[in-house]
Specification:
It is built from 6 helices and 3 strands. By secondary structure, it is an alpha+beta fold. The chain is elongated.
Amino acid sequence: MSNVDASRAGATTHAPAAIFAALGDRTRLSLIHRLSDGRPRSIASLSADAAITRQAVTKHLNVLEEAGLVASSRMGRESRYSFRPEAIEEIRAYLDEVSRQWDDALGRLKSFVEK
């Protein structure tokens, strides 16, 4: 089963559409960028330089977590978020598979037209 078929069957951890939707927001991309250095950060830390409220940052982090792009853990009374590069690898594999499918389809079309 290809990655595309596996994602349709629910075999992958997160649906590509959820990952793309999560990455389609400038604020969430900024949060991913800040977390991509590998250091877990608290909501307070992530919202310190933001032009939005802590509650808004929390909502964005929840979307990223649901998509599998970040993971949260509790340290005392504080939630800390860290980037999950595995989700990006999942989506990269998905895009590679879609690209191969298009290359195959275009190759078949070219063969058909040239005959």
